Amino acid sequence: MSIRTRNDKQMKIKAPIVEALKQAYNNPTYQFHIPGHTKGLGTLTDFRKLIGKKALMVDTTDEFDNLGTLTPATGPIKEAEELAAQAFGAKRTFFLLNGSTIGNLAVAMGLTKKGQKVIVNRNCHRSILTGLIISGAEPLWIVPEKLNDWGLWGNVEVKEVERLLNENDDVSAVWITNPTYEGVVSDIKSIAEICKKHNVPLIVDEAHGCLWNFNDKLPTTSLKLGADIVVHSLHKTGGSMSQSSMLHVGKNSMICEEDVERALMLLHTTSPSLMLLGSLDAARANLQSSRGQKQLSKAIANAKYLRSEIDKMKTIHQLKSGFGYKTDVTKVFIKADGLSGKRLESILEIDFGIEVESASDIGILILCNIGNKRSDFEYLVDCLKKIDTHNYKDIYYLENKKHMPMLTPIIEVSLREAYFSEKEIIPKSQAVGRVSGEVIAECPPGITILVPGELITEAHLPYLTDYETIEVLKNKM
Ligand SMILES: Cc1ncc(COP(=O)(O)O)c(C=O)c1O
Question: CATH for 296-399, among 3.30.70.580, 3.40.109.10, 3.30.200.210, 3.90.1150.10?
Answer without folding.
Answer: 3.90.1150.10
